[in-house]
Every structure is written in structure tokens, then in C-alpha cells.
Amino acid sequence: MSLKPYEEVLEAYDPALGLEVHVELNTASKMFCGCSTEFGAAPNTHTCPVCLGLPGALPVVNAKAVESVIRIGLALNCSIATWCRFARKNYFYPDMPKNFQTSQYDEPICFDGWTEVEVDGVTYRVEIERVHMEEDAGKLTHIGGSTGRIQGADHSLLDYNRAGVPLMEIVTKPVLGTGAAAPKVARAYMTQLRELLRALGVSDVRMEQGSLRCDANVSLAPKGSDVLGTRTETKNVNSLRSVERALTYEIQRQGEVLAAGGRVLQETRHWHEDAGHTSPGRSKEQAEDYRYFPEPDLVPIAPAAEWVEELRGTLPEPPAQRRRRLVAEWGFTELELRDVIGSGSLDLIADTVDAGASPAAARKWWSGDLARRANAAGVELEEIGITPAQVAELQSLIEDGTINDKLARQVIDGVLAGEGSPAEVVEARGLAVVSDDGALAEAVDAAIAANPEVADRIRGGKVQAAGALIGQVMKAMRGQADAARVRELIMERLG
Amino acid sequence: MALTTAEVARLAALARIELSEDELARLAPQLEVILESVAQVTEVAGDDVAPMSHPLPLTNVFRADEVRPSLAAEQVLAAAPAVEDERFRVPRILGEGQ
Ligand SMILES: [Zn+2]
To answer: Using H for helix, E for strand and C for coil, what is the string for A364-382?
Structure first.
């Protein structure tokens, strides 16, 4: 379908965002049984009577999962319930063998919180409605039809290893007043949530493995109106980039519908990463009725105030404070900070600095060359295929003169292509700067001989003309020379 | 509390059970008997009695986060009507987007 230009939509409408984020916790065992949560095991090897929902099996809550959710709630400035229950969310779909998911309904363990995110130097407050505990579902694989999709599939296969893995859902209140920055605010919120969850150590937060998943809601209201528009909920938004892309698309699509005098349908939509669009799923009229009721097999949870305060003492530094502290320590400018936040590279830079690189060098690689490559390849920066330790190693190879900046880019090519560590790539590809002065001197002499008039200008005091000769020498050495050393050799002869 | 056949049809759809008109008409009054029986509880529950979901005055029953042995995949799949690639094979799923 055709889309309204983004700027035009924003001239007439204010978007309201809502984000529902599912996070798989990194406990060793499942939410209600002792089965392992390890990712990538052979199908159906991590199941038992409890997570298979066999008759008579009784669940028992994983204490670590409760602790993790309370810590997340506290880090998001939530109130912690003094008493709450689990509830059964009833639905008939083969991904849950019990025919219900154990979740929480109107008594979430954490509620009424907030966090602040930054986009292009502006701070936006995101209010948190609730954080609740639940369990993940099994993994369906659709067979037949096209490319594993449910449409046209002949039958489906189920692996219940993931069924019962501790999951929590973090739901925002409507986020208003972000204007044209709405998709970026959503992305910044996800990026910050990921940093926070990692700092808390409660999840692997690997979007590509599904341990961090996002449903993104958006609606449009005429500018100045205080009545929210009809919202759509976009599912399958599985990377930080796609959060921003999917919301931008939905804003344009809804803008087009409204401009044509139509009405936005309240429905679930699916994001198609490759095609870059959303398609309709369930409408409100077909919505499920989950007939929640209190889970009789699990007794209520009543976290003692002392326990909650003890957990509060284990919280990491709040994200905004950490950003300000690191940036002050690193000596970055405001503009550099925005690049770092915008590219989502704060943690990567911190890890690279920890691995021995200077903050300036770490920033240069992550928010510069590597961010551009990730963007061009359409992958998350941290999934690009080079680790912070390898970037630190690359930088030390530059600093000890083994390679120069230009060669460093070829070394990155090699590391990304899976050829090994930077040092291994230098070795295998023969990329080290030629430090043999004899070979370098020969190339310098050849360049001088081939360009007598340039040489004369340098002799006459036009030092800047040396650039042309340095270029020739670098070309002759296929880039594998130290430009500063080449300049020295030229000036020794002509200066 | 009259249960309509439309309500029963809705419940059947949620449970993914196909019922004929005859079955709907027959089941509605039967389900109503159950609802009426349960509803008798409300006659004795006063405002001073909080709804009860758990009969025992227990809270915070937890287990430590320790991995215990799971069942062997052969055992788990032995009860499945159909198996393919070590996984439960289920019929085509209708509904969503169809
Ligand atoms: Zn289990």
C-alpha cells in the first residue's frame, strides 16, 4: 500500500507509543520446574511432567526468577506489590501443552514505575505501567507451505524445551509528546532497557535468540487533541533497528489511512523485517478472551519489605547516571555522546576500554566505521562479528605500528569474514606495515625519480608537495607503509 | 442466569471445538445447571468474606534455582500421537491470518 510521507503525517498528528517487552530471564532452571533453560539443546530434552502439563504435576516457583523481576521493577522505579497472585491465561494453541499460560493478571508484582531516555540531547520520560512474571511457550516449526510460515503449512512440529522458561513482561503507559522522535524514543527505550537488564545480570538480552522481544503499539491523534487515536499492535519486532523501522512504517501507514478519510482498525499486525512492512493479524472483534482466573496450584507471593530493600541494595548504577559518569570519565563532547547513544555503542565502548583501548579509539571504531558497517548490513552493532576485545587488539596493533588506519579496515574485513583475531588476520593476509626501511627507501627513491618537478618544489621549500610523493609510495607499497615514516624518508632526501 | 447458545458457541470457538446447532442447544441448559450450582456460593458469601483462591494461609513457597534431570526425549515423545524430527507433530493450525 502507499504511505504518507513521514513529515506530512507529523504535521497533522501526534503519535502515542506503547511498548510491551518480553524478557527471558537467565535462570538456570525453568519458572515452575527444574528443567534446564539452556538454549539450543536437542528438541524435547528439557521437559518434565510440570512443563508438559501432565495430569497431577504441581508447579513450584523459582525464587531466583522472583528476585530478578523485583530487581528489574526497582531499577525501573516501580512499586513492589506486598501480595500478588499468579493467574491462568487460558488459550488453546499447541505451543502450551497445558492449554494455559501461567501469568499474572490484575496483580502484577511490580507497577507504576518510570525511566528516562535520551534522543538527540532531549530527555523523554517513559512511564511503566507494570512488570509481571510469566512463562515462555514452546517453539513451533511450520512444515510445508512457503518458508516455514503458518499460512499454507501442512502441519507443525513442537519443541517444548522453551515452554516454562521464566519470562517477564514490561508494559509502558502510553508515551505521549514525543512527536516526530517517537520511533527513536522507542528504540532508545529498548536500547536502554537492554543495557539495564545486562547490568542487572538477569537476562542474556539476545534479541536474535528471542530473549528480548518487543510488541510496539502506536496510535495517531490529531495535533492538539487529548483523545488517543485507535492503536495497532505490531508483533515480531525483533531487533532495535526494527523497532524504529516498524513504528515509522505504522505511523506512515496510519497517516495514509486517515488522510484518505478512512479509519484505523484496532488490530494486531505483524512486522516483516525483510520486506519492511506490517500486515494485519487478529482484529479486535476476533480478539481472544483468555478467561483469566487465579492459579490454584501456586500460593500467593508476598515479598517482605526487608527482602525488597535488600534487593534494592544490589541495583546497578541507573542508566542516565552511568552515561553521564562514563562520558565525563572518557572526556567525550555532547555531540560525541549523542553519536554513542544513537549508535547504541555505550556498552561496547565500555567493554573495549576495559580491554585496554583508549576511550577515544574505542568510540572512533564503534560509533564510526563499525556502526556504518552494521547499518549497511542491516544488523545490530553487537552482532556484527567483532568483539570489544578484538577492537582493543586492533587498536593496539595500530599503536605499536604493526598496521595503519587504512590496513586496520582490511583487518576488520577479515575479522568480520571469520578469519580469526586481528593479529591472525594480519598474519594470514600479510597486512603488516612494511617496516623494512630498505624496501621503503627504494620506493621513495623511485617516486622521487619519477616525479622530478615535484621533488624540485619540495627542495624549494614547498613541503606540502610531499603529499603527492607519499601517495605514490603508499600506492607502491599497497598501503602497507607508515605514512609518517615515508614523509621522514622523503624529507631526509629533499628537505 | 440464562446461558445463550451464542455464548456457548463463543466458548466453543475459544476452545477450538466445533459444535453443531443441535449440540449448542443441548449443551446450553446443561452448562447452565453447572453455573447455577456454583452461583449458590454467592448466596452465602457476605460482603465481609473476601473471595478465596487458596484454602491454605501460605505465601512464598519457592524452590531454589537448581537444574533437575528432565525426562528422556523418547519417554516424552512416546505418548505423542505423531512424532517427526524428535518433535510433537500437530495438525495444521487454522485461525490467525486465515
Ligand atoms: Zn520441566
So the answer is: HHHHHHHHHHHHHHCCCHH
Task: Please report where in the chains the cell 456457548 appears, as a residue.
Answer: B8
Using a CB cutoff of 5 Å, list residues around ligand 1, an ion. A 33, 35, 48, 50-51
> A61, B56: Cβ pair inside 8 Å?
no
Q: Tell me the fold of B5-44.
A: Histone, subunit A (1.10.20)
Contact A29, B65 (CB under 8 A): yes
* Residues A187 and A205 both lie in one domain: yes
pLDDT, tens only, A105-158: 999 999 999 999 999 889 999 999 999 999 999 999 988 876 666 667 789 999
Q: What angle do CA A6, A7, A10 make, to 5 degrees?
A: 90
Are A241 and A321 part of one and the same domain? no
Q: Could you give the CA distance from residue A383 to residue A164 in angstroms, rounded to a whole number?
A: 27
- Is the Cβ of B81 closer than 8 Å to some Cβ of chain A? no
State the amino acid at position A195 in one-letter form: E
Ligand 1 centroid to Cα of residue A161, in Å, is 8
Q: Which of residues 10-29 of B touch A (CB under 8 A)?
A: 10, 14-16
Q: What ipTM, to 2 d.p.?
A: 0.87
Confidence (pTM): 0.83
Selection from A161, A42, A148 nearest residue B85 by Cα: A42
User: How many domains, in total, are found in chain A?
Assistant: 3
Pick from B65, B89, B91: CB nearest A62: B65
Distances (CA, A) of B28 to A91, A92, A325, A391: 21, 21, 66, 69
Residue of chain B whose Cα is closest to the Cα of A45: B73
List, for residues A257-306, the tens digit of each pLDDT value.
999 999 999 999 999 988 999 999 877 666 678 999 999 999 999 999 99
In chain B, how long is the greatest CA-to-CA distance?
Answer: 57
